Amino acid sequence: MAAPKDRRFDVHLHLSRYWPDLPTNSYRAGLDFSVRGLLAEMDLAHIGAGILLQIHESPSVEETLREGRELLVASEGRLLRTSTVSPTQGAEEVARAVALWETTSDLAAVKLFPGYFPFYPHDSRLGPVYEFAHRRNLPVMIHQGDTLDRHGLVKYARPIELDEVAVRYRDVRFVLCHFGNPWMEEASEVVYKNPNVYVDTSGLLPPPRVPHFAAAVARTVDRLADAIAFIGDVDRILYGSDWPLESLPTAVSLIESLDLAPEEKELILGGNARRLFGLPPAGV
Ligand SMILES: [Zn+2]
Questions:
Q1: For the segment 181-227, what is each residue's pLDDT rounded down to a tens digit?
Q2: What separation in Å is there between the alpha carbon of 48 and the centre of ligand 1?
Q3: Using CA atoms, how far apart are residues 127 and 254, in angstroms rounded to an integer?
Q4: Which CATH number is 138's domain given?
Q5: Domain assignment present for 1
Q6: Which one of 64, 78, 79, 135 is CB 3.0 to 4.6 Å from 52, fit for a cystine?
């Protein structure tokens, strides 16, 4: 039986040779941005495994799969792989991506980046992606809220835009990333209303170097508590960090600070994700 610490599961991690501006965006200077560095920090925060989200800067769908496979193997299966495509690349590219994913048996999820690219989640060009997700019963993770890229267009990344596709594809499970920050209230309604929409708690904090960081953490805990109270239960709330933007212990502390029962915190920190991604419960 594994120790309870291994039950934790982070649904939102990044590690890629294509990550831009790492020194500016990581939560501290000199971070070890490697499988070894990430696993060491996961051990520190008692996180057994997680989802490695391919980033929109990756040069091709093939490369998302190749790099994901490399990191899955290097991490001995602790970092699950994903892929991404943008409908703005055209219908042919979407079809090509889906064909490649069809032959990839260990894909954990598909990630989409509205906001970074100018498309809405309900863009009709995404039909083949959602049909693939339905066939394979794979969650679709959707970037929501603020973009790190100042050229991003955040109107495409508002939670309300996810509502339509959640209704249209009731059998597809969606993860509304970053709780739609700063539109957490809007995200809460979309999650409350749609039983197939989950939400992750990643990337909610400013960099630790900003003044009054501790106050920002406290305020974020309050905002999270309000949003969860509105949703009414914790079954579709997923812990995520957005590492390397946030430190894993700090991201976990947001959940630990909530005024919830220990069993509810355990669900957010791993149980819900293991159910969503079809993984065996830790420790069996
Ligand atoms: Zn992210």
A1: 999 999 999 999 999 999 999 999 998 999 999 999 999 999 999 99
A2: 19
A3: 36
A4: 3.20.20.140
A5: no
A6: 79
Q: From CA 87, how far away is CA 120, in angstroms rounded?
A: 9
Q: Is position 246 within any domain?
A: yes
Q: Find the 273 Cα to ligand 1 centroid distance in Å.
A: 16
Question: Residue 125 corresponds to which tokens in the numbers above?
Answer: 């060009």
Q: How far apart are CA 75 and CA 13, in angstroms?
A: 13
> pTM of the prediction?
0.95
Using CA atoms, how far residue 90 sits from 86, 93, 105, 119, in Å, is 8, 6, 25, 12
CA of 1 to the centre of ligand 1 (A): 32
Is 268 inside a domain boundary? yes
How close is the Cα of 183 to the center of ligand 1, in Å?
Answer: 16
Query: What secondary structure does DSSP assign to 11-44, as a single string?
Result: EEE---TT---HHHHSSSTT---SHHHHHHHHHH
- Domain with 73 in it: 9-276
Any idea what the Cα angle at residue 216 is, between residues 16 and 231, rounded to 5°? 80
- C-alpha 57 to ligand 1 mean position (Å): 12
Burial of residue 92 (CB within 10 Å: 0-12, 13-18, 19+) is exposed
284 domain residue, yes or no: no
**What are the tens digits of pLDDT across the range 36-54?**
999 999 999 999 999 999 9
Count up the domains in the chain and report the number. 1
**From the CA of 25, how far away is ligand 1's center (Å)?**
11
Helix (H/G/I), strand (E/B), else coil: 56 = coil
Backbone angles phi, psi at 225, to 5 degrees: -60, -45
